């Protein structure tokens, strides 16, 4: 048995009268809608043609991809397992040290960028724009810059990860500071505490769990970034991955990819457990 629509009858008539443009749009509005859709479709097709999209190349590439996947089995490290493990340890060290260095530098900068700590608009504006400028440059670009500054190797990778994260940490930390409850700060002030005491005993205990949670999350993300910047010469397992792809040793490439996936999954699990312990599962969800 069919059931009547909830908008049938009086309700539909009332809604049609209240919103005539939605139920009976004018011809001009219909033409504008069709023209907008046609323009977007045309722009999409033009972009695909301009960038060389080709079904023939796509079909050829998929068949080539199938051959490469077939050459990846069985994954094996050959006699290079010790080098791969060393590269993986370098990647983890780059991610950990870069993240920690960025957090240490960004922590005081975040107080300068927070409105409830530094009231001067000019200081707040300049500090926020400085952090935005650093944050706007990708980790890979920082890696290419530092490779030319300090040379190839993990040190350039650490600096690249740290430089990229200073801007992000500064913004996130300052936003956490600005949301701090004022009652603990007022309590410290009422006992004659200085501005430094207000920060130490009124703000830091409130925001520290959130900051630690953000640092752990970025360490997990930086593990993947450290792998990518290794491909351009910033050390770590990415360098070995790039070499094996260049030599088309696809069984070695598959082994390296599996190593990276397992490592990232373990760090993801461990980081989540620590974040749950610090700020609680409900807060993360």
From TrEMBL:
- Give the location in the cell: Cell membrane
Q: Which residues form the ABC transmembrane type-1 domain?
A: 88-271
Q: Does the keyword ATP-binding apply?
A: no
Q: What is its main location?
A: membrane
* Cellular compartments per GO CC: plasma membrane
User: Which Pfam family, any one of them, does this sequence belong to?
Assistant: BPD_transp_1
The Gene Ontology terms for molecular function here are: ABC-type phosphonate transporter activity
**What is the recorded membrane topology of this protein?**
Multi-pass membrane protein
Q: Among its keywords, does the record have Transmembrane? A: yes
Chain segments annotated as coiled-coil in the UniProt record: none
Question: Which keywords are on file for this protein?
Answer: Membrane, Transmembrane, Transmembrane helix, Transport
Spell out where the chain crosses the membrane: 31-53, 65-85, 91-118, 139-163, 199-219, 226-242, 254-272
Query: Of which family is this protein a member?
Result: Belongs to the binding-protein-dependent transport system permease family.
NCBIfam families tied to this protein: PhnE (TIGR01097)
UniProt protein name: Phosphonate ABC transporter, permease protein PhnE
Question: What is the originating organism of this protein?
Answer: Bradyrhizobium sediminis
